[in-house]
Design brief:
Layout (H helix, E strand, L loop, with lengths): L4 E5 L3 H11 L1 H8 L8 H12 L9 H6 L3 H5 L10 H14 L1 H16 L5 E11 L26 E10 L3 E8 L5 H17 L9 E3 L7 H7 L4 E5 L5 H13 L3 E5 L4 E2 L2 E2 L3 E11 L2 E10 L4 H26 L6 H10 L6 E13 L12 E14 L1 H11 L1 E6 L8 H9 L2 H10 L2 H4 L7 H32 L3 E2 L5 E2 L4 H7 L4 E5 L2 E4 L5 H10 L21
Parallel strand pairs: 2-5, 5-6
Antiparallel strand pairs: 1-17, 2-3, 3-4, 6-14, 7-10, 8-9, 10-11, 11-14, 12-13, 15-16, 17-18
Helix pairs in contact: 1-17, 2-3, 3-6, 3-17, 6-17, 7-17, 8-9, 11-13
């Protein structure tokens, strides 16, 4: 930059700024946080969100990240890259924790959901572990204990903390929390259930008006007792419950499946990879209360289960072959003895055994006379054994392996079995969110050796996730309503654009500044303009300094 001239990388950040304003991030943070410094705490918070949504530089390099960005356009003329230094970021994170990390997020959610018309009738819950390096010795006043626990990252050697997330519309976060590294999912569900009516009432949703969806850790006597008839839920019946195996066996035996087909479609190399489902409705009683049980069969079997079945079949075959080999070496003096030995060898679990018999004559010693020929002294019998797989039994076993059981207290008049399955399958949205939140480079930043700063960072990550998913939701909603497509990967058309696709289209947007006026080095192309249209933001956000009012102004 020289004098009043400069050039900067913009990429997709003006779009992020526009959505952040509609969410009220800066406005709310400035109102509740007082850092006693010249830089706006809300804008420092927004700078961290922009950093997260631009590849996630370490916290100590945020100032360096913004040196090549148009800070005045993105954050306001009162901000400079120098204001985003280590001390400013650390002070804002500390003040965020002091005020209440999730109180801030709750206020942002309230405004966001109202502006965007988010449906809160189904809320999904799940947890994940985030591994960190270092000692993290516990200290008095720490909000969480960073310690060893069950590692979902498969890194039991590292200490960790737990990220708990509540999402609506599949993947929009509405509540979050940072928990001890050894927090148990079953107790976490119980704690959330105690707070859930209050959390949802803030979004205008009362009891019996929302459905709580969680994994099988929800199914405990205590948790089911908390919910009773007050909270409607959908979960998965744990496989180690005897009722689960009984229900699956009963359904496989009956075979009265309702074929519901595929819930989604995706092809890889021309082959459909999404599962096709079948359902059977049953009922089950747990801890003295009746529940609906939806037995689901998927044709995309769990690979681990299939491997266990393959090993069981191989083991069964080895046992049978050992018995067959032993019997093959024997000869019997009479056919009844051979038949008795054969009948003692019975079918196994996965193999069928069939028999036939062979006989041979036994001749006397010495050379027979020319006139009489060989003298038969007796007959010996052998059992000829044929071993084949019991395809019926194996197919039944594989069918059982492809089954799971959904447990719910939602009345059938409200949601049929297929709708229960669809509601549960939306749980994969929250699981995809964890991939976004778990960045080891960010979580192990030099500024985050204090648990309270880790909790404050959680706010930055969840705000970033909410903004990221809102952009994706807006695009997909517009594409669906108008029945149009956008250019996706490899220049192919897509009906399901993602925020990452959008980011890739704006990666080479640069702005020049001369005499206080901004201009794009290369005009926005048709693909970029099509993305802006479905995002409902005007092209002027890349050059105009005037900020929007925080409402959905629409595409001109």
């Amino acid at each position: 930059m020289m004098g009043d001239m400069g050039s900067y990388t913009l990429a997709h950040l003006p779009i992020v700024k526009e959505y952040a304003q509609r969410m009220g991030i800066v406005e709310i943070a400035d109102r509740v946080i007082n850092c006693g410094m010249s830089a706006s705490p809300g804008k420092v918070l927004l700078s961290l969100v922009m950093n997260v949504l631009s590849g996630r530089s370490p916290m100590y390099r945020v100032e360096e990240f913004f040196r090549s960005r148009d800070v005045a356009l993105l954050l306001g003329e009162d901000m400079t890259a120098k204001m985003l230094n280590d001390d400013a970021i650390g002070r804002v994170l500390d003040r965020v924790y002091a005020y209440g990390t999730w109180k801030i997020f709750s206020e942002v959610c309230l405004k966001t959901f109202a502006n965007f018309g988010v449906d809160c009738s189904v809320v999904h819950q799940d947890t994940t572990s985030v591994s960190v390096w270092g000692e993290y010795s516990p200290a008095i006043g720490d909000p969480i204990r960073i310690t060893h626990g069950f590692s979902k990252d498969k890194r039991p050697d590292l200490k960790q903390f737990i990220f708990s997330l509540l999402c609506v519309e599949g993947n929009l976060p509405c509540h979050a929390g940072i928990l001890d590294g050894n927090a148990a999912d079953k107790k976490t569900n119980g704690n959330i259930l105690g707070e859930l009516p209050r959390i949802m009432s803030r979004h205008g949703v009362g009891e019996q008006e929302f459905i709580y969806v969680a994994d099988s850790a929800l199914v405990t006597k205590e948790n089911l007792s908390i919910m009773k008839e007050d909270i409607q839920f959908v979960t998965r019946l744990p496989a180690n419950f005897g009722d689960c195996g009984r229900l699956i066996s009963k359904s496989v035996t009956l075979g009265a499946w309702q074929d519901v087909g595929r819930l989604s479609h995706r092809q890889v190399k021309g082959k459909e990879i999404c599962a096709s489902y079948r359902l059977q409705e049953e009922s089950v009683e747990l801890y003295g209360r009746p529940y609906r049980a939806v037995v689901v069969h998927s044709d995309v079997h769990d690979r681990r289960r299939q491997k266990r079945i393959d090993k069981a079949i191989q083991k069964d075959a080895a046992v049978v072959q050992a018995k067959v080999k032993k019997l093959n070496r024997k000869e019997f003096f009479c056919l009844p003895d051979a038949q008795a030995a054969a009948e003692a060898l019975q079918d196994s679990s996965f193999h069928r055994i069939s028999f036939s018999y062979d006989s041979r004559h036994v001749y006397g010693r010495g050379r027979p006379s020319k006139n009489e020929g060989p003298q038969v002294q007796g007959t010996r019998y052998r059992v000829l054994i044929n071993v084949s797989e019991n395809q019926t039994a194996i197919e039944k076993l594989r069918e059982k392996a492809g089954c799971f059981v959904l447990l719910t207290n939602v009345p059938s008049e409200k949601k049929k079995g297929l709708e229960i399955l669809k509601t549960y399958k939306e749980q994969d949205g929250i699981e995809r969110n964890f991939g976004f939140l778990k960045d080891p480079l960010v979580a192990n930043d030099v500024f985050l050796k204090k648990p309270r700063r880790i909790e404050a960072l959680g706010l930055v990550l969840v705000l970033s996730l909410l903004l990221w998913r809102l952009m994706e939701r807006t695009m997909r909603g517009k594409v669906s309503r108008e029945n149009v497509t956008l250019q996706g990967w490899n220049n192919t058309d897509t009906y399901r654009p993602t925020s990452f696709m959008m980011v890739s289209k704006f990666s080479h947007v640069f702005v020049g500044v001369k005499g206080g006026r901004r201009f794009l080095f290369t005009p926005l192309d048709e693909v970029q303009l099509s993305y802006l249209r479905v995002l409902d933001v005007p092209p002027s956000i890349f050059t105009a300094m005037n900020l929007s009012t925080g409402t959905l102004t629409g595409y001109p």
